[in-house]
Amino acid sequence: MPPRRSKKRTKIAQFFYGARYRMGEYALRAFVAALPWIPYQLLVRFTHFWAWVTFRCLWRYRRRMLANVSKGLADTVGGPGECKALVWRAWKNFAQSVLETSSVVHFSREKILSTVQLEGEEHLKRALALGRGVLALSAHLGSFGMIGSRLAASGYPFSVVVKHPGDERFAELMNEYRARVGIHTISAKPRREAVRGILRALRDNRIVLVIADEFKSAGVTVDFMGQASSAPRGPATLALRTGAVTLPIFAIRKPDGSLTLSVGAEIEPIRRGDLDESVAATTALFTRHLETMIRRYPDQWVWLGFPRENRIPRKADAHERAIVAAGDGNNRNSTPAADSSEASATKSRKPIQGHL
User: Fold this and answer.
1) Neighbour tally for 30: CB within 10 Å
2) Domain extents in the chain
3) What CA–CA distance (Å, rounded) separates 166 from 164?
4) pTM (2 decimals)?
5) pLDDT of 88-114, one tens digit each?
6) Fewer CB in 10 Å around end: N or C, the chain?
7) Within 10 A of 137 (CB to CB), how many other CB atoms are there?
């Protein structure tokens, strides 16, 4: 894992910073180690209890979620009581997904396959047959942590881009748990190394999970849940530049509590004569797909993806510049994309070239 840029802290602050992560590390190790010895239904009850406790204690997050639900679902959700009930169900779903993601470390391949039903596998097989890799477009929806476990259990090569915590030991522990279930981790920082890792994975015809519902950094302004939000450019840029097939993939919780991994049909990127226009149009298209799923299952989304008010955004094109820089050494002699009339006939998924 590449080293992270450390912030300057006093020795006392550094001590408590490290102590916090050590406590978290040992608690996580103990929790995961104890999971096979505790009846699962008892774990579920314990998880719901702690969800109830944290729902009341972490009031800042609860208020943000309530505000976001009020903005995003103003046309469908009733009064404050209904809004709060939806947020509580979303909170409880997230707690349940944490339990499932932790427990799967001890599951056999057969148990993973039986726990999560797979729908739409034909789309995945068709996409991988092209040999250009797959971008799995998803969100913090349902039990999203089970996506990689289920696909890896089926024998699919799977990678995920992860923003690691600041403590290297804790980050390595999380990587170890993911590796146990066949998930390859790509660190999101530094950006240039992350993009190189994604490009390598796609060249190896792997599935790369892209969580694209964090509208927090400057990028492409899109309409999301009735709000003007700044969506990340990275997923659209990767789809356009690499020619990888983009598939919407979500792990949805059914009313009976069971999980279904749903693989949708390919989302064709929108190619226009200008790359920036292509990225903007494709980002808006990807966002509409995410919104459709979130509106369909509003109590399974975390409702923290909206940008905070008065937040200073990061530089808009940082991720795209990293993609360009990472690819420059691989294809310096490529030619610019054709004009819009030629680009419109791109059903063959030919990648936009020129900078990659």
Assistant:
1) 10
2) 113-343
3) 6
4) 0.83
5) 999 999 999 999 999 999 999 999 999
6) N
7) 24
